[in-house]
Design goal:
The chain is an alpha+beta fold. The protein is 40% helix and 21% strand. The chain has a four-stranded mixed sheet, sandwiched between helices. Strand 3, helix 2 (72-95) and strand 4 (99-104) form a beta-alpha-beta unit.
């Protein structure tokens, strides 16, 4: 597991290229506010949008996720823990006014970039509560 890339994976790079083509600036591999040990793949700090590109295996994609046959019980527990951590990672930023966007690695990153672009523009256009 330590050999798995944490950042700059192929889907993340495709997403970043598509976001840049749409004229968006962003931060990459950034700590989430209030969760220093959790990092999002792409962040729009001013718009308060955090984007995660999840791998189908490690995050148990409902379409492409699989469980290895060797040591299956350990893998089931490990992957279930990843899902639980993902949900917790989503809850905290949302509770403080951030928008969390999740995409699967097998999705078309151009479509994902368009979706993120719309969310970021809407977040920049409308003031946040209390402002």
């Amino acid at each position: 597991m330590s050999r798995q890339r944490r950042r700059d994976t192929k889907p993340e790079m495709e997403l970043c290229r598509a976001l840049r083509a749409l004229g968006l600036g962003y931060r990459v591999d950034t700590s989430l506010p209030g969760l220093p040990r959790r990092r999002c793949d792409v962040m729009f700090k001013g718009a308060r949008v955090a984007v995660f590109v999840d791998g189908c295996f490690w995050h148990s994609c409902p379409v492409h996720g699989t469980v290895p046959r060797n040591n299956a019980s350990w893998w089931v527990e490990k992957l279930a823990g990843n899902i639980t951590r993902d949900r917790d990672t989503d809850r905290h930023p949302e509770a403080i006014g951030w928008t969390v966007v999740r995409a699967w690695e097998d999705e078309d990153m151009t479509d994902t970039a368009r979706r993120v672009h719309g969310i970021v523009l809407a977040a920049r256009r409308w003031p946040r509560p209390g402002e």
